[in-house]
Specification:
The complex is a heterotrimer of chains A (269), B (375) and C (321). Chain A is mainly alpha-helical. Helices cover 80% and strands 0% of the residues of chain A. Chain B has two domains: 165 residues, 3-Layer(aba) Sandwich (D-Maltodextrin-Binding Protein, domain 2); 140 residues, 3-Layer(aba) Sandwich (D-Maltodextrin-Binding Protein, domain 2), CATH 3.40.190.10. The chains are: A mainly alpha (269), B alpha/beta (375), C mainly alpha (321).
């Protein structure tokens, strides 16, 4: 009985979380412009979606910014984490709190401060500023996920490599990087998801007609939410769903209670 | 049971994706029945386009504010390539120009912003000799209050603020701002979430000047809006279009451009400029102080003043135009039938443009914050 | 590992440009205002206009504004209007955080138990909606809750089908169209929906890591499930709870989109006012001042939480009885 109640409770929360998503998906097949009335089944919104240049170009921007920002911030963050790791305790603590600031700050403040930075530097807002801002708010998360792996690293490994004649660069790529790779990877994924989902920082730092999906949705919705947006959500959701369930199911089958895998499931913020 | 769900659900979804993808691609061949409106091609592409000269002009305009075909025609006629960018608010555009990071040749700010930019030396005087088509502009729509001496700007479109109402839901068609204080429409009206516009209308309702900065008058307007608050369903800006078309409320304070859009989407909606007078606004073509290609800019402005081109843009944009030659070309009767394009002259006489208030803008903002944070 | 100073340089540079300088910019904008330079316009005989400054000098160019250091924006910020907005933001954020905690903690607890064979999968399903763009999710709630929305339409057709239900509703004074949106509750709903997973995740992670033998020991020593919860699970989960609170509270107190969409502009929060300053109101200086305020408040909140974290750290030896 208690068990059933507990399951029902989780089910209820699930229903709450999925209700709007089910609605989005359902009404993406609705043959009526009204969002609330059912007018029969149609796929026309999917066709119109692919014909909509604004949405498609925003999708392209989102993906390209996401991948570029994730790559750059992963590189920068990994280097940064190693640099921090090599510092003495005091300066490291100081640097760490500086690096953590953007995470503690609200997104509004981060967005506004970056916008003021670009305004001061007289850089025209656009693709470049959007990319720079995304890198800026992603790096701390990469640092955060690489640091713990560095701590677990055997300090003798790199030295051993150098004693055996490896250059520091070789030492890094052959010895250190493979060991911290899980941290680097999870940092990359986090940066990617955060960049793709970001609205607030992008809102303040983009311009010149460059807009990512979030901003396009925001401006579009002001003119009236088209069911095209529902169609887009459905596609995004199904892709993510299939991808994640696929990855996780195959992993989980091997080891149903594998904690490591749960750690990979990160919240995209 | 859970296991079944997991496996079957998963595969069902995979199948669903494939089916959707297939149907979406297969459906491409179907003829999409769109109610293609009959478009009269006022202007046509020249038969022998002038080859591109390498000359360019850059134009900075509101989003969705020009028929892109007219740009193609301009390019074909002159050989000048148009680099076209859009902005969302006057303030965005102002920030770009004032920061100086980018140079545009033609911009289209609204009246009060024209005034501000003139004061801040951000615009240059227009050489009328190079813009013969300015003769097409109706003199009724030349307001010297924001451009003294008519030296810096050419009106492109104009509009008013008024009440958009659902003809099926109101007892009688509104004619006065009093409607916005009517208990009948309790929790059934939208107001604009915009300090200048909403406070301006409140000032008119109190019988004061739209541009008043007198603290006592503003206080009275503020009290009026606080008293109105229980009647207001929401304070919205652009969302008002979607919501009014969807029938969320019966009356709304809107700009005429939004009203045109809503009326084209729903037959139940109509628009009125209340008899007490209202705000009238102009979006005007200007040349910024740092324009690189002034002669190209003049050609473009002159081009947009041409009757056939103005008619095309009216068709596409939907805002009322000050171009009398274009109205004649399209047929004045049809044009004037719209309550948006043709408010009674006596109402129009009572309409005022917003003036740039300088640091008094802050006062408006403060009062507005006080109104909406009242709870 | 050999210390390699060269590595630190690009990173330090990055941190300086993208973390330190922007914050300095906020502070600089926050403590300055633009002031017009007073002048008089003189129309000369030849028709040209010149501008005379107060010190008597004459220029042909209209004098522009200058930026001066002033604390007037700080005075403005402490006016009751803005303090009230801040308080309201706090109230909404605290209620949101509490609801998320009350709803989320049991979920984390149940998932770590033995009821579900694959808790990790269920956890993933719980946070999956978060991969959808949050604007999309919020818009979906709007289309459900609108006056002409899905829920109201369903209720209307239910009323048509069941006259008794209709009569009952009418007798209770329920209007034809129920207004769900455009109030504080709608804003809170929107926030709870968007942030609930942020609460579940960290709590789950922490509870999952509790040594199961502790719980077994407690049971062996005769502790009731309730007692072993309050004595073992609860104290050990505090760090997760605190992290969850932070992850919900910080975005909730500063959001501007959810309040705008769900509240219809009737429930302005401090984030909305900041956004206005950079948009319509075009007063960047005051916007920066407000951002500073929010930053200080949030950092103070986090500092306070951190302190609790340290004080409440569960002692290594847990006394069961």
């Amino acid at each position: 009985m208690a068990k059933k109640l507990r399951k029902a409770y989780v089910g209820l929360i699930m229903a709450f979380l999925y209700a709007p998503i089910v609605m989005l998906i359902l009404y993406s097949f609705n043959n009526s412009k009204s969002r609330a009335k059912w007018g029969g089944f149609t796929l026309k919104w999917y066709r119109e979606l692919f014909a909509d240049e604004a949405i498609m170009s925003a999708l392209g921007t989102t993906l390209s910014i996401g991948i570029l920002a994730a790559v750059i911030s992963t590189a920068l963050g990994t280097v940064g984490a190693i640099a921090l790791f090599q510092m003495k305790r005091r300066p490291r603590q100081a640097m760490l709190s500086v690096v953590n600031l953007p995470m503690l700050n609200s997104e509004v403040v981060t967005g506004v401060s970056l916008m003021l930075l670009f305004a001061m530097a007289r850089i025209q807002l656009g693709y470049v500023t959007l990319l720079l801002s995304h890198v800026a708010f992603c790096v701390p998360y990469v640092v955060l996920s690489v640091m713990p792996k560095l701590r677990q690293l055997d300090p003798n490994l790199a030295e051993a490599a150098q004693d055996l004649g490896a250059t520091p660069l070789q030492g890094f790529f052959r010895v250190i990087l493979p060991d911290i790779m899980p941290g680097v990877f999870s940092g990359f994924i986090m940066a990617l998801t955060m960049s793709i989902d970001d609205f607030v920082v992008s809102f303040f730092t983009t311009g010149s007609g460059v807009s990512n999906l979030s901003i396009t949705i925001y401006t579009m919705a002001k003119r009236g939410i088209s069911p095209k947006i529902n169609a887009l959500s459905t596609i995004i959701f199904v892709c993510v769903f299939v991808l994640l369930i696929g990855i996780n199911l195959s992993d989980l089958r091997k080891d149903p209670r594998s904690q490591d895998k749960v750690d990979k499931v990160r919240i995209p913020y | 049971m859970k296991n079944i769900f997991k496996k079957k659900g998963f595969w069902l979804l995979v199948i669903l994706v494939i089916v959707v993808a297939l149907l979406a691609s297969a459906g491409e061949e179907e003829i999409i029945e769109e109610e293609e409106e009959e478009v009269i091609p006022w202007a046509a592409m020249p038969e022998n386009p002038v080859p591109m000269t390498g000359e360019t002009i850059s134009v900075y305009n509101w989003g969705d504010y020009i028929d892109s075909e007219t740009i193609d025609i301009f390019e074909a006629e002159t050989g000048i390539r148009v680099i076209y960018e859009t902005f969302e608010t006057n303030e965005d555009m102002y920030a770009k120009i004032a920061m100086g990071g980018s140079a545009y040749d033609v911009i289209i700010p609204s009246d009060y912003m024209v005034e501000r930019m003139i004061q801040e030396n951000l615009l240059q005087k227009i050489n009328w000799e190079n813009i013969p088509n300015v003769a097409n502009i109706d003199e009724r729509f030349i307001h010297e209050s924001y451009d003294p001496g008519f030296e810096y700007s050419v009106p492109y479109t104009w509009g008013t603020m008024g009440i958009l109402y659902n003809t099926g839901a109101v007892l009688e068609a509104p004619t006065s701002w009093e409607t916005l204080m009517d208990e009948t429409y309790k929790m059934d009206m939208f107001m604009l979430n915009s300090p200048r516009d909403t406070l301006g209308i409140a000032l008119v309702m109190c019988g004061y000047d739209l541009n008043s900065t007198d603290p006592a008058q503003l206080e009275e307007a503020k009290q009026l809006l606080i008293a109105q608050k229980p009647l207001v369903l929401a304070y919205v800006v652009d969302e008002v279009k979607d919501k009014m078309v969807g029938g969320e409320a019966s009356v709304a304070l809107v700009w005429s451009g939004d009203a045109t859009f809503c009326m084209s989407e729903s037959d139940e909606l109509s628009y009125v400029v209340p008899k007490e007078g209202s705000n009238i606004f102009y979006d005007s073509m200007c040349i910024p102080h740092n324009a690189r290609n002034v002669s190209g800019a003049e050609k473009f402005i002159d081009f947009l003043c041409r009757a056939d081109i103005a008619a095309m843009n009216y068709d596409y944009v939907g805002y009322a135009i000050p171009n009398k030659a274009a109205i004649e070309l399209m047929g004045a009767e049809e044009y004037n039938a719209s309550p948006v394009n043709n408010p009674p002259q006596e109402t129009l006489d009572k309409c005022q443009v917003f003036k740039y208030l300088g640091d008094k803008t802050q006062l408006y903002d403060q009062i507005w914050t006080e109104i909406i944070s009242e709870f | 590992m050999k210390r390699n100073k060269a590595l630190a340089v690009p990173f330090m540079l990055w941190a300086a440009i993208f973390i330190v300088v922007p914050l300095v910019m906020i502070v600089w904008y926050g403590v300055t205002v633009e002031e017009p330079i007073p002048y008089t316009e003189i129309v000369q005989e030849d028709g040209t206009t010149v501008f005379q400054l107060e010190d008597g000098s004459v220029t042909a160019v209209r004098p522009q504004k200058k930026t001066v250091v002033s604390l007037s924006n700080f005075r403005r910020m402490f006016e009751p209007t803005y303090l009230r907005l801040l308080l309201r933001s706090f109230k909404v954020a605290i209620i949101t955080t509490l609801i998320c905690l009350l709803l989320g903690y049991p979920v984390a607890l149940i998932l770590t138990g033995t009821d579900f064979k694959r808790p990790a999968l269920w956890l993933m399903l719980l946070i999956l909606p978060m991969w959808m763009n949050f604007l999309l999710r919020t818009y979906s709630w709007m289309s459900i809750l609108e006056n002409n929305g899905i829920l109201n339409n369903w209720i209307a057709s239910l009323r048509e089908m069941l006259p008794a239900f209709d009569e009952w509703l009418t007798s209770r004074g329920v209007r034809r169209r129920i207004i769900f949106l455009y109030n504080e509750n709608a804003v809170i709903l929107g926030m709870v929906y968007n942030y609930l997973s942020f609460m579940i995740m960290p709590i789950y992670t922490v509870i999952e890591k509790i040594d199961k033998s502790l719980l077994e020991a407690a049971a062996d020593l005769g502790a009731s499930p309730v007692k072993s919860f309050t004595r073992v699970t609860l104290p050990y989960s505090i760090p997760g709870v605190l992290e969850g609170i932070t992850m919900v509270f910080v975005p909730a107190v500063t959001t501007f989109v959810i309040s705008q969409l769900m509240g219809g502009g009737k429930v302005p929060l401090i984030g909305d006012i900041i956004q206005n300053q950079f948009g319509k109101s075009s007063d960047w200086h005051f916007g920066a001042t407000l951002s500073l305020l929010v930053m200080v408040v949030v950092l103070a909140f986090m500092g306070a939480l951190n302190k609790i974290d340290k004080d409440d750290e569960p002692v290594k030896e847990v006394r069961i009885l």
